[in-house]
Design goal:
Structural class: alpha+beta
Distance between the termini: 26 Å
């Protein structure tokens, strides 16, 4: 009888733990959230791989490669690792946790393209709509190019403007609204759609387009369509929210063998679609779950397919060749880079604003995603995501099914 009683209790507990969202459990700087565990499967050895990655990041902080960092790592609807490392400010003891807010830099671009996709699904616009349909006063020196510029051209970095047109003005604190009209006088170097040239000012035109299409300011639209539905409660797109948040990281620059904290600055917030998002590791976990298909009511799979297409081939930078194993070709999709690795596509982007680095990658096929945030301009940022992705595919390549065990 006693044996039957305990067996019944065990069956009941298994049912509860595999059926319901268990919320979050916090232990120091760690927080693990079980989002969707019912019936999920994971490869044998994945837990060990994640544990080794946790040690790798901890060692990076312990060896002063950055004052602080935070990570979110997901697989098939489950958050495998969510953790903060180090401190918010060098020389102080206030530690980074999973709700500490960092600046994302150009990782913000992926939010803009997904937001566009949401409005495409709602019927407010299409990827190949002409920009002048929404922005009647949009001008370029080449009037034919202006007439043919599309939403896709903006998001795929194929506007024809020279590389980083007026990014230096954003660096120097000029507001986007005071810069964008100057695009009309810039000589283009290609027709729209022909050539990849990375942009921040021209990319931010998408915010004006979405405002015209929806009647809602870009930052409010982002809150309404993405941050709030995904419960990204730490995320914002303005300097005041970041500056006055007591749980925000300080930016750092290298000073000899140590890190020197710098004052927070408001540069780039006016170009919100290009570089204005602030977020925590907890926010990024929710974002990755949505990007890998676990919030279809927020992000439709059609949008994921659209943003991860091979819109334009891009040069394979030395950094990419150095750290990404078996890298075949690199492309720009819509607001995202797409790396073809051994015949398999990984969707990726990096971000930098003074004193912060952010890296994100996800795989729509295997449902794996990772984001790492740093409060420094550390070189380890270029290594950390390929470090995990390379190990993941070495062990669990999509073309060679790995043995699976029930996750219960």
């Amino acid at each position: 009888m006693l044996r039957r009683f305990f067996t019944g209790i065990l069956v009941f507990l298994i049912f509860v733990f595999t059926t319901y969202d268990l919320g979050s459990v916090t232990n120091g700087t760690k927080e693990y959230i079980s989002h969707i565990t019912s019936g999920s499967l994971k490869p044998v050895g994945l837990d060990s791989l994640v544990y080794a990655y946790d040690i790798y990041l901890q060692h990076s902080i312990d060896s002063m490669k950055s004052p602080g960092a935070a990570v979110a790592l997901v697989y098939k609807g489950e958050i495998m690792l969510l953790k903060g490392y180090g401190v918010k400010k060098s020389g102080e003891t206030d530690t980074v946790d999973v709700h500490t807010v960092f600046r994302l830099g150009s990782v913000s671009k992926g939010f803009a393209s997904i937001l566009t996709g949401i409005l495409v699904e709602e019927g407010s616009l299409s990827w190949d709509d002409r920009i002048q349909h929404f922005l009647a006063d949009f001008k370029m020196r080449d009037t034919a190019s202006a007439a043919h510029m599309t939403v896709r051209n903006i998001l795929s970095q194929t506007t024809g403007f020279p590389e980083h047109t007026y990014t230096d003005m954003l660096d120097n604190g000029f507001e986007y609204d005071n810069i964008k009209s100057a695009l009309a006088g810039v000589p283009t170097i290609a027709k729209p759609g022909e050539l990849y040239t990375y942009q921040n000012v021209a990319y931010s035109l998408i915010g004006d387009v979405l405002y015209s299409a929806s009647g809602i300011d870009y930052n409010n639209l982002l809150q309404e369509k993405i941050f709030q539905p995904l419960n990204m409660r730490d995320a914002s797109t303005d300097f005041a929210s970041f500056n006055y948040n007591p749980n925000s990281a300080m930016p750092h620059l290298r000073a000899g063998n140590t890190w020197k904290a710098k004052p927070k600055n408001n540069r780039y917030y006016s170009a919100s679609p290009a570089s204005g998002v602030n977020a925590s590791a907890s926010d990024m976990a929710a974002w990755l779950l949505a990007l890998t298909g676990y919030y279809p009511e927020v992000i439709d799979n059609k949008t994921i397919v659209a943003i991860s297409g091979h819109n334009i081939e891009t040069p394979k930078k030395a950094t990419y060749r150095r750290y990404w194993k078996s890298l075949d070709k690199t492309y720009y999709g819509l607001g995202w880079r797409v790396f073809n690795i051994g015949g398999h596509d990984i969707v990726y982007h990096g971000g930098y604003v003074e004193g912060f680095r952010a890296e994100i990658a996800f795989d729509p096929e295997t449902k794996m995603g990772i984001a790492v945030l740093f409060n420094s301009n550390t070189p380890v940022a270029s290594q950390c995501v390929p470090h995990f992705v390379n190990s993941f595919f070495d062990s669990f390549a999509p073309s060679v099914p790995a043995p699976f065990i029930a996750d219960n």
